Amino acid sequence: MIQASWKASTGWATPELKPYGPLSLMPTASVLHYATECFEGLKVFRGYDGKLRVFRPDRNAARLRMSSERISLPVFEPSQIEKLIIALLSVDGTKWLPKERAGSFLYIRPTVIGTAPQLGVGAPKEALLYIIITYMPRLDAPPGGMRLHTSPEDMVRAWVGGFGYAKVGANYGPSLLATADARVRGFHQILWLYGQQGECTEAGASNFFVIWKRKDGKKEIITAPLDDKLILDGVTRRSCLELFRERLNGEYEITERKYTIDEVIEADAEGRILESFAAGTAYFICPISQIHHRGKNIDIPMGPEATPGEVTSKVKGWLGDIIYGREQHKWGVIIPEKE
Amino acid sequence: MIQASWKASTGWATPELKPYGPLSLMPTASVLHYATECFEGLKVFRGYDGKLRVFRPDRNAARLRMSSERISLPVFEPSQIEKLIIALLSVDGTKWLPKERAGSFLYIRPTVIGTAPQLGVGAPKEALLYIIITYMPRLDAPPGGMRLHTSPEDMVRAWVGGFGYAKVGANYGPSLLATADARVRGFHQILWLYGQQGECTEAGASNFFVIWKRKDGKKEIITAPLDDKLILDGVTRRSCLELFRERLNGEYEITERKYTIDEVIEADAEGRILESFAAGTAYFICPISQIHHRGKNIDIPMGPEATPGEVTSKVKGWLGDIIYGREQHKWGVIIPEKE
């Protein structure tokens, strides 16, 4: 793991490469009381061309800086974080993801926490940045597709004026209760609705896409917009939109706008829903087969034998080609390895 | 400090009394990523009668259980927490708050954190409850009274359907940025407004009271209600309301309802504002002298020579008498001490 400590008085210390092991924190550490914490998630992939790649780490580094500032933790040059990630992977990537494991990945978790031992409610005067690497199971193909349960009426994930756009711990802990309830009922994740109209925002901790026929007959790929800062500016979300605009333009309208669960229900009733998927680093591109909303099931079409639908398959294929080196693309950043 | 660990498989271990020192947490511990954390704050007072007291610990214990459940941490019998607090104070209270320090207090911080080393977003399978005791400065009498700045238009502390009523870390970290901005501008705390109408909710991390003359000439003590779960059910808030209803009934209307910053501004313009104070464990009863809202100052009357006003003084006196044993009251729970 990589660690770098920070003090308000002296700034950042030189980052150190250390063996993975426990952190020592005072019981009064800011992070344990006031959730002064933020993180990122990205993956490193062993390509079919033998190369090790990370996907758009510049995006994660920039978002970590933004999240850190939002939660009153210290800021840094995003390019420095990118360098640290690459330095760590140059050492550990080859070891844990050897060349014969083409098509495999590891998960990278950069984290910033407030370590200052201070119970006074204020910005922490000491912090720690660390980067760890772990295994993570594949989550992108639950048998039969991902089933979503809409959020309970009395529970909201994020709100306008809040911090739903930042990858801070405070967005996750409070959502666990609803997710656990949904799991007990046999669903995988919550579809978080917002406001009186029930705007569709996120699916679990992933972004949410619907592909449908509009009333005018035009095919459309739709996802919630970023402008009111309710949802996370997902790297996978952004990459999907960029690829759709580049490769499906003309065939589909690509739309970022607010849309409600009632629009989804209406489209379902009129047989206009084509596909739906969740997009994120952990779940990659995960086809959605069902949405349950207040006692009613919306069944979403999938491909033959519960494979992903056409658009879902295409974007999953394109991204897979980029991350595993079947397509050379600027988004796949190659990690230098010693021979 | 007292520590008790919990595992999903085996439940709570026997609590242990340990010397104060650092905690060892894995870098993947749930609390460091997903803000699975909650806490309480209460004080122990050395009375003028020589006795050691805590104030309504049953309330804090019950709230800790509620917060713990809300943030997907394990639950427990509140009475057990109360017993642990009293056990810890029976040992450390005498030592750190000897009999000659009448009129002094220490701060007690029970905390529950998710310790499970798991990056998967889910309820932590391991947790730690600990109780620590620290010194805390007196915060209830900033020279000239507390000055509040209303929350920025693009920042909301809590929302209906959220978790503003629970004492979870996720309510604190995200509010630090606005508080730091207010401090730079010369204010002590944020007055958090909610919704289009600008409902007055909390002052910093304290509850907020206004005493005014209503348009019908009747004197009123007003504070935000608990019913939409936006604000913390403060023990001091609740105690103030109970004492007001018992001791000022007839003289003042005691009202819990939504009221807006525009109502406060109007009352100010019509010379109807009498007093205002913040109520909480950390700030105790703290008179408010000014509210700044979008470029405009509302000056709040105080007593002569910047002392608290009449109602503020009265309730501060009543509570002070209870906690320091000048009035024997069931809220002041006596800690048994060895001679």
UniProtKB/TrEMBL annotation, chains A, B:
Q: Which domain of life is it from?
A: Eukaryota
What this protein catalyses is:
L-isoleucine + 2-oxoglutarate = (S)-3-methyl-2-oxopentanoate + L-glutamate; L-valine + 2-oxoglutarate = 3-methyl-2-oxobutanoate + L-glutamate; L-leucine + 2-oxoglutarate = 4-methyl-2-oxopentanoate + L-glutamate
Task: Name a single GO biological process.
Answer: L-valine biosynthetic process
**InterPro entries in the record:** Aminotrans_IV, Aminotrans_IV_CS, Aminotransferase-like, B_amino_transII, BCAT-like_C, BCAT-like_N, BCAT_family
Q: What is its EC number?
A: 2.6.1.42
Record flagged with keyword Transferase: yes
What GO terms are given for molecular function? Answer: branched-chain-amino-acid transaminase activity
Q: What class of enzyme is it?
A: transferase
The answer to whether the entry has keyword Amino-acid biosynthesis is yes
Q: Which UniProt keywords apply?
A: Amino-acid biosynthesis, Aminotransferase, Branched-chain amino acid biosynthesis, Pyridoxal phosphate, Transferase
**Gene3D superfamilies on file:** 3.30.470.10, D-amino Acid Aminotransferase, subunit A, domain 2
Name the CDD domains for this protein.
Answer: BCAT_beta_family
Q: Name one GO cellular component term.
A: mitochondrion
Pfam families in alphabetical order? Aminotran_4
Q: Which residues carry this modification: N6-(pyridoxal phosphate)lysine?
A: K167
Family, per entry: Belongs to the class-IV pyridoxal-phosphate-dependent aminotransferase family.
How is this protein named in the record? Branched-chain-amino-acid aminotransferase
Which species is this UniProt entry from?
A: Cylindrodendrum hubeiense
